[in-house]
Each structure stands twice: as C-alpha cells, then as structure tokens.
Write a structure and sequence with these properties.
The protein has about 700 residues and is of the alpha+beta class. It has 20 helices and 27 strands. The longest helix is centred in the N-terminal third of the chain and has 29 residues.
Length: about 700
C-alpha cells in the first residue's frame, strides 16, 4: 500500500478521487491500495531560540550570535492533530512506500520532508511532480513518479532558505533592539527592504520642491495645440501674443496604428493589485476573499505566481468561459471566439496555474455570495475573457503646427477595434470602482500637412511639477515583485521580494509593528519606520540580499553549490554584522525610546509616575505600582485592585480626594465613594506557594451618595 501526502486537504481529495481512494477516514482517505492524507501548510517549524537553553532566553549583545550547532524543530500546536495522523500513517505496517505530493516547488518539498524526517520515517519515497489538478495530469503524474532522491538538492535549497531567514531575522532583530532599546526592531530579509522602499519614496516626497511652469496654446480648427514647458510667465505670454489673430501652419501629421495585447491571467499579486486599485481591498483582504471562493470551489487555488494554465487545460478553459457567459451578469452578450492557446504554457506553470473560476459557478447561486467575494469572482472571470480576447487596436495622430515663430504640438487617439477592452469596460460599468481615471485623449479633427488656419486664438496655462506619489498596495506589490530582479538569474525560482502568498503578510506585519500606516489607499512609513531604515546597514535593507540568495539557492537546487558553503556565507554575514554594530551613542540609544505620559510625583520617593501598559508606576528607585490600594473605612480596612482613570490618578498624586463610582459592596450593592490619599504601606501575600511583596497606596474612604 502507498501513502500519498499532499499539501492541503482539497488537493488530497482531488488525488484520492482519481486514485479511487474514496473511503473517508479521520485525517485521510483510503481505498484501492492507497492512503491519501495531507499537511496543513508547515506542520514542522524551526524552534525558537529559547528552546536551545537559558543562554538565548535573554536578549543581550553578549549572547549574539544566536547560531545553533544542531537545528531543532517543533510541531505547530494548532496543527499537531494532523501531524499525529501523518505520524501514525508513516509508521503503519501496511504502508510500503510514501509518495510526496506536495506542491511542485521548493517550499512544497520542504513541507513534506520535514514531516518525513520528524517522524523518523525510512520507507521508500517517490515524488509526484504536477502543476495541474486536472484528472489527466494527476494520472500522468502517477504513471511517471520519480525517486524522491532526485529532489534532494531542492530540499537542501529549501533548508538553506529557511535556516538563513531564521539566522538573519533572529540575530538582526535582537542586535538592533538591544542596541537601540525601547521598541522591538524586527529585521527580515523581505520586510526590511520593503520598508526601505517606502522610506525612500517618502524622502523623495518630503524633499520635493514644487516648480511652476507655463504652456502657451493656440486654438484653431478645433485643435488645441501647446508648446513645451516654459518656465517664465512673461515668455509664455509673449509666445501667445505673437500668435493672436495670426495664421497657423500644419507642418507635420504622423498617424500610427498600435495594438494592446490582451493581459495575462491573474496570479495572486496581479489580482491583489487590481482589487486594490479598483475596489480599495488590501492585499490581505483579497487573499481572504479568494481563499473563501476557493474553499467554495468557485475559483482555483489563489496562492500562485503563475499567469498561465497548463497545456492540458484547454477544454477546462473552454467550459469555464461558457459558464461565465451563462452566469455572469456583467458580461456583454457578443460573438466571442476565445484564443485559449494564448494562456496555455506548461513551462511557465510551477506549483500552481493561474487563478480562474471553476465550472462550478454555473451551478452556484452567485447572488448569495458576499459582495466582496462576488467582486473578486467577477474580476477573475473578466480577466479570463480579456486574456483570451482579441487585441485592442487604435490609431494615434501626432501633429505639429507653427505660428508666430513657435512650434505647437497636438495629439489624438481613436479606437479602431475595441477587442478585449469590451469585457474590461463592461466590468467597470457594472461595478463601482475606486480607481483614479486618466484623462482620455480625444480624437483630432482631420489634419493634413500644409493646412493653414487664420484668426488663431491663444491662451496660456499654469502648471506645477508634482512629487512622486505615495505607494498604494497596488504599486507597492508591483515594486516588491520587481525589486532586485535585475540582479537575479533567469532560472531562479522566486523573483522579487517575498512570494505572492507572503507579500500581503509582510505589509500587514509592517503595519502591526508600527513601522507603516495606512491612510486611505496610501501606505506611508511612520516616524519609527523612517528612523529604523536610517540606522540599518545596506546589507539588510537592500533587495540585492534577496537577489544574491535566490541566485545561490538556485545553484544549491541544481547541485552546483554545496549547502554547507551557502550557510557558511550566511553565518559569516551575520557575524560581521554583529561585530560591526556593537556600540552606538547615547543620543542614538534614545531614538526608539517610547515616550511615556507622566501622571505626577511618586508619594513614596518623589520620582516620576508614568502611565504604563499595566497601570501607573514609579520610574524611579522604588518602582511602586499604583494598582493595589489599601482602603480604610469607618470601622474596617481592606486591600483592593482598581482601574483608575489617568485624571483620577493625577488628582490623587496631587494629594486631593477623588470620586470613585460604581463600587460594589460585599452584599452586592452599588455605591460611590471618595478616596482620600493617606500614606504608602507595604503589602505581602502568598500565591502558588510564592510570597509576593510590594507597596500600596493607603486611602481613606468616605461614602458619597447612594446609587438607586
């Protein structure tokens, strides 16, 4: 019996159906001589530094570098149940061989191998390498299984990627956090260069100096022709004045037919970009909506970096296009002969093919979908129609006119055949989009060389140079996709910063860590984000690091570079980073210090009382926490914890009484009372066998009006 391990449950189900393993069990399928199970992403991960012992539990410069001699792994808590299923199956006496059916790529190989190794399995291993989930592709793949050892180099490449990211991330984060103190300064091979791009753009915007300029216009024969940029208003007025009521001569007319090829199908990144531009969805939201559609079997797998379908999917694409015409309300009912071969290319499909709808849309109640998902599904459907449509054909006209000794230019455009843009325009008319529309170029009247126009009218227009635009998620995703590409070889598996599946998370991490903020569609670095990039060396913030890694990882995957050689270079880089950045000035140490609100003077030692995450506390020697109070009543006294407002605490520290509302007696009655500050007392109590000591504020209670 063979055990087949896929990357995700949906893939396992598709494989099981083809293999005839239709008996559903707890965590796997069984039947026809096969057991088919699945991972849930990365079940096994590298252990945290704390797992290696006390030496790396504390963040100190002296403990760096964090460099395990023997790597340790741990099973993710939220997926342990599925790991246990796989462990049992791998050691099942019925299983004679194991088939790795995870995604056909570096990370897919890693996901399987770590489970196989963690479980201590030594059974023969085979590899299923397919890029399509079509039945024919699955059958062909199982007819041509390869020895698992053929992919050892790919596995080594994946291990290098994982370990290198861990070493740079852990050591970089600890190093700069320890040096600068205060805020945790998270460093990552992908997120740091991404932040650097945002900061660089922000610097250009901040340093931009607006410049005024002018253009002179002549108006004649239905044409508005303009000069080039003129920096002086007086000069522009002189040019216009020399032409007023004069004669204009057409000196040149150039007509050119141009085509716009249909766009490619969507990979995740291009889908996220369009969804942000058209609907304002964040990259994360787009992934979530598309994932939901995938789970509802209405579109194909979203986490893909391919914009093509495999060669065996021609009939599938035809059926999907028919289903789109039958079900999608935005589609114009026109004669359509799709060119499907344009979107087929198995050589450009690795782990997964492009995102398209499934034929299941013909049976689904699309109106019942959330509006967000319906928009994404329509966007994906429209892209399939556009990608297989005719070329868009248009004509451009560029004319030059002379008047008053100056040259004026005019241009126009006219559509000859709309082609694939019929579907794009129909989609935009059906949905309210948020994109910024470019000014449309109008059609020029018929012009010929040698034509003249008398009685020319003139005007001047005032303009200003504009700064670079802030990044949106659309433009940032594009920049991440292209970053460092010029330094990468043609055969590297991953280009740019991150992968389609991880780029959304990178943006969210930067926002969550306080280095980036969203303002409507714009992505803008915070003050902390700008300061962080200022202090970091180029080696960790330049896209070239990723480019160099990917080039080297490609060599490892081909067996042309030793894994130990790659890792030795990474360790050297980390060690040099730590040695170089070992000391900074006192001024720089304060760069990321968290400004704390001061609430008053400590009644115990006279130090400053700051507002902390868990309550007010003294920043000076005594370290007193103002959460525990000893309350003195008429004939009783007792200790209690209270959450007081900042205003109440400030008043209390001034030695004045405060009104505390909503107190509850032992009998359950609600009442208000005044607290009057008296003195500071020590307290002690035992919890879980340990004595806990501290200082508390002693206050006198005076009853206020009773609550009804």
């Amino acid at each position: 019996m063979r055990l087949v391990i896929a990357e995700k449950p949906s893939v396992a189900k598709s494989i099981a159906e083809v293999l005839g393993a239709m008996n559903r069990k707890d965590g796997y399928f069984e039947g026809n001589g096969y057991l088919v199970s699945w991972c849930v992403g990365h079940l096994v991960e590298l252990a945290e530094p704390e797992s290696y012992g006390d030496k790396w539990k504390r963040w100190t410069y002296e403990s760096l570098p964090v460099k395990p001699e023997l790597w340790q792994y741990e099973i993710k808590e939220d997926t342990k149940e599925q790991y246990d299923v796989l462990y049992a199956l791998l050691h099942d006496n019925r299983v004679e061989a194991v088939v790795c059916a995870t995604d056909a790529g570096r990370e897919g190989e890693l996901i399987f191998r770590l489970v196989y190794e963690m479980a201590g399995c030594h059974k023969p291993m085979e590899r299923l390498w397919i890029s399509s989930m079509e039945e024919s592709a699955i059958r062909e793949g199982f007819d041509n299984l390869k020895p698992g050892s053929d992919y050892d180099h790919l596995y080594h490449s994946a291990l290098c990627r994982q370990e290198a990211d861990w070493l740079v991330g852990i050591n970089g984060t600890r190093l700069f956090t320890v040096l600068y103190g205060g805020k945790t300064l998270k460093i990552g091979r992908v997120q740091t260069p991404t932040l650097a791009m945002l900061v660089e753009r922000e610097a250009k915007i901040m340093n931009f100096k607006k410049e005024q300029y002018f253009m002179a216009h002549i108006l004649c024969g239905g044409v508005d022709a303009v000069t080039e940029r003129i920096d002086s208003k007086t000069e522009a007025e002189n040019v216009a004045g020399a032409c007023l009521n004069g004669q204009a001569l057409v000196t040149s007319v150039v007509k050119e037919e141009k085509t716009v090829a249909p766009p490619k199908l969507y990979d995740l990144t291009t889908l996220q970009r369009d969804a942000n531009r058209l609907f304002g969805f964040t990259a994360k939201q787009t992934l979530e909506y598309t994932q939901s559609l995938y789970e509802k079997k209405l579109c194909t797998y979203p986490r893909t970096d391919s914009q093509f379908l495999s060669d065996d999917m021609e009939m599938t694409a035809e059926n999907v296009i028919k289903a789109i015409f039958d079900t999608m309300t935005f589609v114009p009912q026109v004669m359509f002969n799709p060119d499907i071969k344009r979107v087929l290319n198995s050589k450009k499909v690795t782990d997964h093919h492009a995102i398209i709808p499934t034929v299941e849309i013909a049976l689904a109640d699309l109106k019942a979908l959330p509006e967000t998902e319906r928009k994404i599904l329509s966007l994906v459907a429209g892209r399939l129609l556009c990608a297989t449509g005719e070329k868009h054909l248009y004509e451009t006209v560029k004319a030059e006119l002379t008047c008053g000794g100056s040259v004026f230019k005019a241009s126009g455009k006219s559509v000859l055949r709309n082609g694939w843009k019929d579907f794009e325009e129909a989609f935009k008319k059906s949905f309210k989009t948020t994109e910024e529309k470019d000014a449309e170029e109008k059609k020029l009247p018929e012009l010929r060389e040698g034509m003249t126009f008398d009685g020319v009218q003139t005007k001047i227009s005032e303009h200003y140079t504009t700064p670079p635009k802030h990044f949106t998620e659309d433009s940032l995703l594009s920049a991440m996709e292209r970053a460092g590409s010029e330094d990468m070889g043609d055969d590297v598996e991953r280009k740019g910063l991150g992968t389609p599946a991880t780029r959304a998370d990178i943006i969210e991490k930067l926002v969550r860590d306080g280095f980036v903020k969203r303002e409507k569609k714009q992505i803008i670095p915070t003050e902390d984000g700008m300061k962080l990039i200022t202090v970091l060396p180029d080696v960790v913030k330049a896209p070239k690091l990723t480019a160099d890694w990917e080039n080297a990882l490609t060599l490892v995957a081909k067996g042309e570079m030793d894994r130990d050689e790659f890792m030795a270079d990474i360790v050297t880089m980390v060690e040099e980073l730590i040695q170089t950045y070992h000391e900074i000035s006192d001024e720089h140490k304060k760069m990321f210090a968290q400004e704390q609100e001061i609430l008053g003077k400590c009644p115990n030692c006279g130090g400053q009382i700051a507002k902390g995450k868990y309550g007010a506390y003294c920043m000076d020697k005594c370290g007193m926490n103002f959460k525990q109070f000893k309350v003195v009543g008429d004939d009783f006294e007792y200790g209690m914890s209270m959450a007081l407002t900042d205003a109440q605490l400030k008043t209390l520290f001034e030695g004045k009484k405060i009104l505390v509302e909503g107190l509850k007696s032992k009998a359950g009655k609600i009442y208000d009372a005044y607290f009057i500050p008296l003195s500071i007392e020590g307290f002690s109590y035992t919890k879980d066998g340990k004595e806990i000591k501290g200082l508390q504020y002693k206050v006198k209670k005076e009853f206020a009006k009773k609550k009804k």
